[in-house]
Amino acid sequence: MSIAAPTEPSGAGQPTPVADVAGESLLRGAWRRLRRSPLAIAGAAIVLVFVVVALAAPLLAPYEPASTQWAGLVTPQSVPGPATDHLLGLDSFGSDMLTQLIYGARQSLIVGVVSTVLGLSVGATLGLAAGGFGGKVDTIVMRLVDVLLSIPSLLLAVSVAAVIGQSQLSVMIAIGVAQVPVFARLLRGSMMLQSKSDYVLAADALGIRRRRIVMGHVLPNSMGPTIVQATLALATAIIEVAALSFLGLGDGDPAVAEWGRMLVAAQERFGNDPRLAVYPGVCIAITALGFTLFGEALREALDPRQRR
Amino acid sequence: MSHRAVTDQTPRGEVVLSVRDAVKHFPLTHGIVFQKTIGHVRAVDGVSFNLHRGETLGVVGESGCGKSTLSRTIMGLERATGGSIILLGDELVGLKEKQLRKVRRNVQIIFQDPYASLDPRMTVGAIVGEPFDIHPDVAPKDDRRRRVQELLDLVGLNPEHINRYPHQFSGGQRQRIGIARALALRPQIIVCDEPVSALDVSVQAQVINLLERLQDELDLSYIFVAHDLSVVRHISDRVAVMYLGKIVEIGDEDQIYEHPTHPYTQALLSAVPVPDPELRGRRTEIVLEGDVPSPANPPSGCRFRTRCWKAQDICAAEEPPLKARTSSAHLSACHFAEELDVVHATQ
Fold first, then answer.
1. What is the pairing mode between strands B221-225 and B56-60?
2. pTM surpassing 0.80?
3. Per-residue pLDDT tens over the stretch B199-239
4. Residue of chain B with shortest Cα separation from A17
5. How far apart are CA B328 and CA B207, in angstroms?
6. Which of A19, A198, A307 faces B160 most closely, judged by CB atoms?
7. Is the ipTM of this complex over 0.85?
8. What are the structural domains, with CATH classification, of chain B?
9. CATH class of the domain at A37-57+95-307
10. Which H helix or E strand runs over B332?
C-alpha cells in the first residue's frame, strides 16, 4: 500500500498533521506469539534439522547410498555395530546405517511434501468450491468427498499401486488422496462459519460482489485451520510412507533408502540387533513429533481468541 | 412524566421506507439430496410500517420474535417471500441481484457484536474504505484516504489509527468503526441491530449519543432493533412491538410507553426494573406464563392468545387487525385493547 504524506483530517481540533500509527496484523501477531512459544521453537528446530539433512544428504552422508560393499561383513547371526568408519554400524544389507538414515530423510521429505501438497491442493479446491458456491455444488462435492472418505486409506493405497504400479508416485498419490477429504471438509467448514459472520453481511450490504466476498474476506479468514492441518498432515504422511513401505506397498526400488523399509529389514534380526529397528524408528518418531509440535503451536498462535 | 411532551407532533419528513405486509418464511426441509419442504418458519409474517426522514423507529420484542429477520429483509440481505418494501420510491421485493445491489446502498447496517462485524485481517482504513472500491463514484481514488480519515473523525476515532487492526481497539471503538463503515456510502437509512447490547453500560451511552448526533448532522433515519426497553425509549421517536413475526402495537414513543393497550406490550413494560422503591410497590407486575409458541406453527387467530390473560373464544377464531383502538391514536392488534397504567423505569 502506498501511503502518501499524512493528510489533515477535516475535523476541527486536529491542527497538527497526523502521523501513521502502526498496526499489528494478525499474521505478524501470530509470528510474535510463535517466536515466544518454546514448543514452536522445539518443533521448528526439529523440522529445520530434518529439512537441512534431507536437502544436503549427498554432502552429509559419509558414503554412497545403498552401497553394499560391506555385505561380506554381515553374517546371518550378526551385523557389525558402530565403529569409527561406520558411526552407527551397518544395516542388514551391508550398507552404512548413517548414510541410509540420511537418505531416508530425503525420501520422507519428498513423499511427505508432494503428497501433502497434492492432498491440500485438491482438497482445498473442493472445499473452496463447496464453501464458496454452497447449495447444489456444496451437496454434490461433499457427497463425493464422503465417498472418498469411506474408502480406507490402506485399501486406497493398494488399489492405486495395483493401477499405476508399485512406485514412489503411487505412494504419494495414495497418501495425498487420503488427505483430500480432510482438507475439503476443514476448509468448507471454516468457510461456512465465516460466511455467516456479520462482516460478511456488512460486505453484502455495501454491495460487494459474492466473488469478492468469498475470495477477499471468507477465504483468507478460513485458512488458519487448513494451514495447521497441512503441517500436521506432513507428520501423518511421513508415518504413512513408513507404514506403506513396511507393508511392502512402497517404492519397489530397493536402492532407495527409506525408513519404513529399513524397519521391515530389521524385523528378522530384531532379537540380535534391535538397533537396526531403533534407529529408523526414532527418526520417524522425532520427525513426526517435530511437525506435530510446530503444527500445534501454529494452531495456538493463529487462534482468534488470543488476539483480544 | 416523559421528557418529550405528549403534544410533540413535529411534522414528519417524507416517507423514506414503506413496508407493506412484508413476509419472510424460511422453508423447513427434510432429506439431504432430495429435499422436501415440510413446513415454514414464519419469521416475519405480514409486517407493515412507514419510516420517515430523520426519524428513529424502535423495534422491540423478545428473542426469536423476528426483529433481526425483519431488519435483514428490509435491507435485502434476506429476500422477502412476499409483500412490498419500497425504499426511496424503489420496490425491493423481486428485484434482480444486480439492481438490488444498486438500490440498497441507501440502507446500511450496524451490528450487535463489534468483534464479529469487522474483518480481523483488514486495517481500519481498508474496512472503512472498502465501500469506495465498490462504488468509486462516492470517492475518487486519490481522495480516499482523506475521506476515510474524515469518517473516522466523524465517529470520534483518532484518524491516526487508520493503519491499526480491529483487535487493537476496544468494543466501543470497534462499534464506531462499524458505524464509520456504514456511513461511507452516505446512506439515508441505518438499521441498528442491537447496536449497544454487547457493550458496557457506560460505553452504551457514548454510542447512543454518537448515533443521535449523526442523525442530526446527516438527517439519517434509524430502525433501531433492541430488547432493552429503556434504550429504545431514549432514542426512538416511534416504537413497534413485535411478537412472533407480527407487529402487535405501534405508535409514538410516549403512546407506547405511557398508554400501552396491547397486553403483550403491557407485560413487557411491567418487566422493566424500577429504580424508585416507592414506585416499585405501586406498579402492576404482569408475569407471562409459558413459552413463545413455535413460529413454524403459530396459534390461530391472535398469536399472543396462548399466553394472554384476556383471551376469549374470539381470539382463537379471528386475528385482530392492527388499528386504532382506544382514545390514544396509535395502532394495536388486540380485540380487548385498553390502556393500562404501567409504572415504568425511565425518566
1. parallel
2. no
3. 888 899 999 999 999 999 999 999 999 888 889 999 999 99
4. B160
5. 32
6. A19
7. no
8. 15-332 (3.40.50.300)
9. mainly alpha
10. strand B331-332
